[in-house]
Amino acid sequence: MTLLDSLKQYTTVVADTGDIDAIRQHRPQDATTNPSLLFHAAQMPAYRHLVDEATEIASDHGGSHDRMAEEFIDSLFVLFGTEILKVVPGRVSTEVAASLSFDTPGTVAKARKLIAMYEKKGVSRQRILIKVASTWEGIQAANELEGEGIHCNLTLLFSFAQAAACAEAGVTLISPFVGRIYDWYKKENGGKEIAPDQDPGVASVTRIYNYYKKYGYKTQVMGASFRNPNQIVRLAGCDLLTISPELLDQLEQADGVLERRLDPKKAESNEPQLRLSEKAFRWMHNEDAMATEKLAEGIRKFNADARKLQEYALSQVAEKVG
């Protein structure tokens, strides 16, 4: 048995890529996408037909070049997502622009639009997760969307305050960023590697998982942003883990049986149950220096990735319409 096969006994494995061939190879249950992954996938000759189709849709939409570029990006996300869903039996996560991270109405409107586009393609909203940044505004948008049957994946999650607020909002899924948490503490530690049994990213996900299971929250935990296979091994049993093709390869090439580390039957937590107001949320999150810095940085990075995709979109639209 490979480590990947063993992991799949306890945990839903999600492919963190826009490369449909890589998804097909590793046979995950779900897949996640983002502007950076789509930008790279769009450069591959195998997906040129999707780029051409998105360009056609955008040019038919008309309007300014910026409006057509926005239409191109939305269409590209939906076209890739639809193709991915032909390969995975579960769901695909499609991201709302990072520029909407502090805009509740804007996030809700974009999510509704993306879902409508998927449904026009014959894809049920049950198979889509709208990916939203775990800001207070994003969490409120997700709460509203979940009430409409639009399921959400709350990303860029670093603090316990974010996790607690997401659970109270009834979001479908959260994506705590294991690797980025590790990176911050490694840097604070003068660049020294941190022992696997002291990994702060793994500890954060374990704490959140146990809290959710103790209090019966239905929100699922999907560990994300891994730096090495050891982090994945130590979270075996987490509801879901989203893993890059490179790390999936390593797990598939290694034989062994994983010990289940996270188990709802054994979940214990000393945390009091939190029901955070906006003020309490902002204060608690602000008290966590790592989370405050990594959330802000993550939004900036996601937005920079989106701008690359936007520039690519503008070049495609300009080429089409002249």
The CATH top-level class label: Alpha Beta
Termini distance?
A: 55 Å
> Would you tell me the overall average pLDDT?
95
CATH architecture title = Alpha-Beta Barrel
* CATH evolutionary superfamily: Aldolase class I
Please provide the ordered H/E string of secondary-structure elements. HEHEHHHEHEHEHEHHEHEHHH
Query: How many separate helices?
Result: 14
Main beta sheet: strand number and arrangement?
8 strands, parallel, barrel
Strand portion, in percent?
5-15%
Total individual domains: 1
Classify the helix fraction into a percent range.
Answer: 40-55%
What would you say about this model in short?
Helix content is 55%, strand content 11%. The protein has 322 residues and is an alpha/beta fold.
Descriptive account of the structure:
This protein is α/β, with parallel strands linked by helices and 322 residues long. The protein has one domain (3-321): TIM Barrel. It is 55% helix and 11% strand. The protein contains 14 helices and 8 strands. The chain has helices spanning 3-8, 20-26, 35-42, 48-61, 65-84, 104-120, 136-147, 160-169, 178-188, 200-214, 229-233, 245-253, 278-286, 289-321, and strands spanning 12-16, 30-32, 92-95, 128-133, 152-157, 173-176, 220-223, 240-243. An 8-stranded parallel beta barrel has the order 1-2-3-4-5-6-7-8, surrounded by 8 helices. Helix 6 crosses helix 7. It is globular. 49% of the residues are buried.
